[in-house]
Design goal:
The complex is a heterodimer of chains A (359) and B (441).
Chain A: H1 16-42, H2 51-83, H3 85-92, H4 96-109, H5 111-129, H6 145-160, H7 176-194, H8 199-219, H9 226-237, H10 241-253, H11 257-268, H12 272-280, H13 286-293, H14 298-311, H15 317-329, H16 332-338, H17 346-358
Helix pairs in contact in A: 2-3, 2-4, 2-5, 2-7, 2-8, 3-7, 3-8, 4-7, 5-12, 6-9, 7-8, 9-11, 10-11, 10-14, 11-12, 13-16, 14-15
Chain B: E1 5-9, E2 15-18, H1 20-28, H2 40-52, E3 56-64, E4 67-78, E5 81-91, H3 100-110, E6 113-117, E7 123-128, H4 133-136, H5 141-144, E8 145-146, H6 153-162, E9 165-173, E10 179-188, E11 194-203, H7 219-246, H8 255-284, E12 294-297, H9 298-308, H10 310-315, E13 319-321, E14 330-333, H11 335-352, E15 358-366, E16 369-375, H12 383-386, H13 407-417, E17 421-426, E18 432-439
Parallel strand pairs in B: 13-15
Antiparallel strand pairs in B: 1-2, 1-5, 3-4, 4-5, 6-7, 6-11, 8-9, 9-10, 10-11, 12-14, 15-16, 16-18, 17-18
Helix pairs in contact in B: 3-7, 7-8, 8-13, 9-11, 11-13
């Protein structure tokens, strides 16, 4: 089907100007690459994303840019076609793949949002790897209309997220803060790429993109996310003691990892995000302390620990077995004290942590 | 479980007592009663179960002489030691008859929807376009999928009984009768008992080849039939294994091997595409080749074809500008064949588009015909080559990867059999516009 071996975009061979421009930028490029190589060397292996998490994260970022970007782009294009043909033409040349690099660069500057994405794909991958057959039978322990309805909503949210995390399509399911940040980043990135030559066009284009972003944001409902549905069920069911143990067993038996995190978070009086960090970070022993603070039986903690070790190859089951004995020898009251900080509001904890670096 | 064998291991890891099957396996590995267990996979699990104080279950492969046996091992702490229950006892086939995990992985790549059921065959998850997932969840699987028409229930049940998998079973969506193919993998609980299915499915419109009907056995037909059977299964196996190496399903693999695995997989997929085309070729070249004449919505067919290629386009960073959801374009032809033609045309357009390019799909009706134009921003085709690309094996540049030079030949033959045509307009450097025309519906 193709014959002409020249550049499909019709470019001429590299000319002198290009050569000189490349030479001009070369020193900075080399510095940047060297810097990145050194930073890469200094990253401990434990902090490095493995290939599956990398792929899952890339897939998620693409899905986010694709869905939010399409919302904004379609809206702005419809608006501009009526009022400004030049702007519409500039806009129609923008495609999602032009935006990815810019969005990834912005992610690099926002630790909170990037961290949320990493934790979320990591937990999804852990859920994917949870072992079967650990528990013989564990039916859904909640009762009552409200809990059943919340349970159904959770099943549906889980179903929407069923695609393997490293393959598209993968539901975006963003919390409100991230949704807002991504929406404005993407709108700004579209404006940058479209970059129309005339000033009045630029104003109309910016207006249309801003309205498109606001329109897209108005449609997002963070309450529909899987994490929110699980948190709601955990709150409605409000389980303690034996019922909580049964519910944790149910979540493990059915490999419902987000529900597992939500049940622990609710019972411990901490946030879902805090528990998710503990579950996705193998070096953090606070998860075991938090489970101990709930006065769970040893078997229950052992099952959760074993399941996480099976699902996450970064964890070491022998080390967990060592820690388990130590955790169980700790009085519950001490465990409650040791995990008190986790029950503080996240913003307060963040402010305290940044205060320490200021001093 | 009839095939379950048990053993008791004391606190020091020594075998206290064992059913004959475990005792024999242990003896063949050089162990005996009162001695440390000689089966490391079982011993490790027993030790872990004792340390953690919980029931633990894992699959394991244990050597039995020169063969490997696949076992499901469950270790349970007791006052007098660890009781180990071993079930499964399946010989690990040296030539894996589509290993459940691999078959599942392969299907996932081609899947258009995902489903999941529990042991009672109630749907617990469903995702994919065109479903009312909320209504299906909690309902019996058989209410969602009509499994009776093509005797698909049997493979499902036998997969459940054997705790294995089934692949590519024909079935229908119960609600609207759309033909689908289902694949699934049985999930197993701690006792080795069936705990439900995790599965994928695809709509059968996308199935490229149908077995040729037995009529006058000609050389060509038999050849295609045999080719299909002889090559497809091994190729699927190659793809499945290469994909599972590439996905690092069984642990980390060095990056260059991941790339090799991807090369192997893509080469095998290319060969599978060739097999599909050769089977089609032999079908359309038969004198009694007939095509159904029905009213179809060409706009709908175009949207579906674009949908089937969405993932490939996304990977190539190409955008497909598909018709609006409410566009309708009635035409006369056979749905499956029209879809096949459009998948070919759009697939070519995606393949030859530059990164960041757009493939436009335009619908036109009137004057007794309905047409779809597929326009790309590729390099275009020189005038002297435009006739040749519709020839059998008529590739312009044989050194290019992808494609085998049969697609457009088949597409044009199929279109003409439906009373239409496939034509091309192109100028070098200005992309190509392929047009499928069918009689107006």
């Amino acid at each position: 089907m193709s014959i002409d071996p020249t550049d499909p975009l019709g470019g001429t061979p590299a000319d002198v100007a290009t050569l000189l421009a490349e030479a001009d930028g070369a020193a900075a490029l080399v510095r940047r690459l060297r810097g990145a190589a050194i930073r890469d060397l200094l990253i401990p292996d434990a902090a490095r994303l493995d290939d599956r998490r990398r792929a899952a994260l890339r897939t998620l970022i693409r899905a986010i840019v694709g869905t939010i970007g399409a919302d904004i782009h379609d809206f702005a294009l419809r608006r501009l076609t009526e009022v400004d043909e030049g702007g519409a033409a500039a806009l129609s040349r923008v495609d999602a793949c032009h935006l990815i690099a810019s969005i990834e660069a912005r992610l690099g500057t926002d630790e909170a949002i990037a961290g949320d994405l990493i934790d979320r794909v990591t937990l999804d991958l852990i859920g994917d790897g949870l072992p079967t057959g650990l528990i013989e039978q564990a039916p859904e322990p909640w009762q009552g209309r409200a809990a059943e309805r919340a349970g159904e909503a959770l099943r549906q949210a889980e179903s929407r997220r069923r695609t393997p995390p490293d393959q598209p399509p993968y539901a975006t399911d963003l919390p409100a803060e991230s949704q807002a940040a991504f929406t404005w980043w993407i709108a700004a990135a579209i404006a940058d790429v479209a970059r129309p030559p005339l000033t009045d066009t630029s104003a109309a284009l910016d207006r249309a993109l801003a309205d498109g972003a606001a329109h897209s944001l108005a449609q997002a409902d963070e309450g529909e996310r899987l994490e929110a549905a699980a948190t709601r069920l955990a709150a409605v069911a409000d389980l303690r003691g034996g019922a909580l143990v049964g519910a944790l067993d149910h979540a493990l038996a059915e490999r419902r990892v987000v529900l597992l995190a939500a049940l622990i978070a609710h019972a411990a009086g901490t946030s879902f995000d805090s528990v998710r960090v503990l579950m996705t970070e193998p070096a953090d022993p606070r998860l075991w302390l938090l489970l101990r603070s709930l006065d769970l039986p040893r078997e229950s903690i052992a099952r959760i620990g074993f399941a996480l070790c099976e699902a996450d190859h970064r964890r070491d089951v022998e080390r967990f077995a060592d820690q388990l004995d130590a955790v169980m020898s700790l009085p519950v009251a001490d465990a409650v004290l040791a995990t008190a900080a986790l029950r503080l509001p996240a913003a307060f904890r963040a402010a305290r942590a940044s205060g320490e670096t200021v001093r | 479980m009839t095939d379950m064998a048990a053993a008791l291991i004391d606190g020091e890891g020594r075998l206290v007592e064992a059913d004959p099957r475990i005792a024999a396996l242990n003896a063949s590995a050089g162990g005996g009663i009162g001695q440390p267990l000689a089966l490391p996979a079982i011993g490790e699990l027993a030790r872990l179960s004792r340390r953690l104080g919980i029931v633990i279950a894992r699959p394991a492969v244990v050597a039995d002489g020169e063969d490997d046996v696949e076992l499901w091992i469950r270790a349970r702490p007791q006052p007098d030691g660890i009781r180990v229950e071993v079930s499964g006892w399946r010989d690990r086939a040296p030539e894996p008859s589509p290993a459940p995990r691999d078959a599942h992985r392969f299907d996932a790549a081609e899947a258009q929807f995902f489903w999941k059921s529990d042991a009672a065959m109630l749907v617990t998850a469903l995702s994919g376009e065109g479903f009312d997932a909320a209504a299906a969840i909690g309902q019996p699987l058989t209410r969602l999928f009509d499994l009776t028409t093509d005797e698909a229930l049997l493979p499902l049940l036998s997969a459940a009984a054997a705790r294995g998998s089934f692949a590519d079973q024909p079935a229908r969506i119960a609600a609207d009768g759309r033909a689908i193919r289902l694949s699934g993998r049985a999930q197993v609980d701690g006792g080795g008992v069936f705990a439900g299915f995790v599965g994928t499915g695809r709509f059968v419109d996308a199935a490229p080849a149908e077995p040729v009907v037995e009529a006058t056995p000609a050389f060509g037909e038999q050849f295609a039939d045999r080719l299909d059977r002889a090559l497809r299964t091994p190729l699927q196996r190659i793809v499945a294994h290469a994909d599972s190496i590439g996905a690092q399903a069984d642990g980390p693999v060095r990056p260059e091997y991941v790339e090799y695995a991807q090369d192997i997989s893509s080469a095998a997929r290319h060969l599978m595409g060739l097999v599909d085309d050769l089977v089609d070729l032999s079908a359309i070249e038969r004198p009694d080749f007939a095509i159904a004449s029905e009213t179809i919505d060409l706009a709908d067919v175009t949207r579906r074809a674009a949908g089937l290629l969405a993932v490939r386009a996304a990977n190539a960073e190409v955008r497909i500008d598909r018709p609006a959801m409410d566009d309708v374009l009635p035409a006369i032809g056979e749905f499956r064949r029209a879809l096949q033609i459009l998948v070919n045309l759009i697939g070519n357009a995606v393949r030859y588009s530059p990164r960041g390019g757009v493939v436009w799909l335009r619908l036109d009706g009137g004057e007794g015909s309905a047409s779809v134009t597929v326009a790309d921003q590729g390099r275009g085709i020189a005038h002297e080559d435009q006739a040749r690309i519709f020839d059998k094996f008529g590739r312009v540049d044989a050194s290019e990867p992808g494609g085998n030079g049969l697609g457009l030949y088949i597409a044009r033959r199929l279109a003409r059999a439906m009373g239409g045509d496939v034509t091309v307009e192109s100028e070098p450097g200005q992309g190509a516009r392929f047009k499928l025309t069918l009689p107006e519906g």
